[in-house]
Amino acid sequence: MEFNHFDENGNAIMVDVSEKKDTERVALAKGRIYMSQETISAVRKGSVKKGDVLGVARVAGIMAAKRTPDLIPLCHVLCLTKAAVDFTVEDAYVEAVCTVKTTGKTGVEMEALTGVSTALLTIFDMCKALDKTMEITDIHVVRKEGGKSGLFLNPKDAAGECGVEESECSMDENAPIRVAVVTLSDKGAAGEREDLSGPAIAEMVTEFGYKVIETVIIPDERKRIESELVRLADSRHADLILTTGGTGFSKRDVTPEATRNVATRLVPGIAEAMRQLSMKYTKRAMLSRAASVLRNDTLIINMPGSPKAVRECLEEILDSVDHGLKILKARESECARK
Fold first, then answer.
1. Greatest alpha-carbon span in the chain
2. Phi and psi for 283 in degrees, rounded to 5?
3. Is 125 an annotated catalytic residue?
4. Cα(63)–Cα(114) distance, integer angstroms
5. Catalytic member of 16, 86, 125, 186
6. CA gap 224, 241 in Å, rounded
């Protein structure tokens, strides 16, 4: 929102924005809630007595972003075109990210901050019976776009403290390709099975000259997968997201559906090439439902679930994938210069 002014009597007033032009406005804010490992474990397992902690917190954050003018007195009433809340669960904290968009005369950073704050407060409320020492901290605007001021990147995040370096937000054609690796496994996420495919992917792309910015293991839950893919593409600015697992016939294998649901364009040839290669080794490769898509300028590819198959497929596709990623980075750099 705009800085508040005063009238001739020194009273605070809402800024008059009627003369401003309508532009697309985007804001992203984040924050963390630190908690005990026992509470983190309960959140991950869904065993908190009040219910689905992150699911309820997500809805609360979205509702709060929409009702920001009712909570912050001098904020303008805006018609939001998007309000989304995503979470990352680490060993000591849960990080919430709220992204808000509109087309209008004033920005939406207050809506993003209100959304992330309410999401974190909701987590506190749902978990307070387990942990009264939880601490909410580090709430701030990461990024905002639109209006006269244009693009703003928080120096704290640009310096790499929160994982996004300004020079690496896909604006530099010569910057290394940023890769995120996502392992989909119920047992892996619960610590009951060692992840071998994720490290195999990370090792191969690193040898290829790419930069692995994050590796995560999450259960085979469609909404959770969608949320993670959106976060890695939109907030972490990954150029390439490689998933492993969850592409078969089991009812829990929902990776392709989640991947297609976050896509802006399809790239079917990559998945088809991997299936064709794998058919040389086993006819069961025809049962793979893996997808390959673009989410804006991020390429997302579903890889097989075994280390051996991962290595074989990466050897087959990496050269062509690299060519496609360079086209994407060149396109975005050109857009930035304009």
1. 81
2. -70, -15
3. yes
4. 10
5. 125
6. 15
